[in-house]
């Protein structure tokens, strides 16, 4: 595994629920973002937001 140069760690902060996830690799970051997006999609279907 060769970490991308300059990649130390990144914090993903969700603008919808404020959840923060610190990722140490780009792969981890993308995975966390993807999983979180899926979670929101699921929550949205379970608890439709009234507008
Ligand atoms: Zn969120």
Describe the structure.
It is a single chain. The longest helix has 21 residues, at 26-46. The protein is built from 1 helix and 2 strands, in the order E-E-H. It has 51 residues and is an alpha+beta fold. The model has no long low-confidence stretch (mean pLDDT 85). The chain is elongated and about 45 Å long. Strands 1-2 form a two-stranded antiparallel ribbon. A hairpin with a 6-residue loop joins strand 1 and strand 2. The protein has one domain (11-46). The structure holds zinc ion. The site of zinc ion (ZN) has 6 residues, from helix 1.
Write the layout of secondary structure elements.
Blueprint: E1 10-13, E2 20-23, H1 26-46
Antiparallel strand pairs: 1-2
Residues 14, 16-17, 19, 36, 40 line the site of zinc ion (ZN).
């Amino acid at each position: 595994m060769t970490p991308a140069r300059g990649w130390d760690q990144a914090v993903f902060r969700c603008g919808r629920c404020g959840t923060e996830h610190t990722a140490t690799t780009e792969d981890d970051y993308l995975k966390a973002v993807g999983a979180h997006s899926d979670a929101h999609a699921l929550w949205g279907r379970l608890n439709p937001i009234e507008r």
